[in-house]
Design a protein that fits this description.
Blueprint lengths: L2 H44 L5 H16 L28 H26 L1
Helix pairs in contact: 1-2
Amino acid sequence: MNPFGGIVQKAFYLGLGLATVAGEKAGETLGELRTQASKLADDLVERGEMTTEEAKKFVDDLVRNSQKPIGESAPNPSSKDAPRTISIDDEEDGDSNQTVSDVDSLKSKVQALQDELKRLQK
């Protein structure tokens, strides 16, 4: 009898056992995720923050995304569900004097409102 063959056989069975246990754990975790997502969705529906259809889609999407490989679950920027990118330009197209004047005007209005608030609190 070859002692090396016994070691290979034991290693094979160990790997098979580990794969089985990992599969069972993944199934349990997925079940827990589905349960927790359903509870969250039910709470949102009760509060009126989400419709029943949106809740069902939310749970299904969450479970589907959890089953994807890690690198694959990154959002696709071209998909319609992805948020739009908004750029904010600091450059002014108009007069900078007009902007300074507007800021000064707003500051004086804020000061007047604060003074009025203090007067009313007395």
